[in-house]
Amino acid sequence: MSKIDEYVAERSKDNPGFAKLVEQENINLEVAVKVRDLRENMGMSQREFAALVGKPQSTIARIENGSMNASTKVLSEIAQATNQRLTIQFSPIS
Hints:
94 residues; mainly alpha
């Protein structure tokens, strides 16, 4: 168990909602990395990428910095606009 995992476990004892918050932030960061990697692999700026997917550049920026809980609808729109398949999976918590 990492120091971060230990901290989350300890903090969650006093505040059960803390673990849920941490998990949501982890999801947001994972989505952020995937969307940024897709955009960069396409050789596009945020503005160009936003125009392609029909969203404001600020939305793409919020997704990429992890501050937005991107809905499956928005992710699906990104996938369709970029000819990608959106896959969602569940994994056991280690």
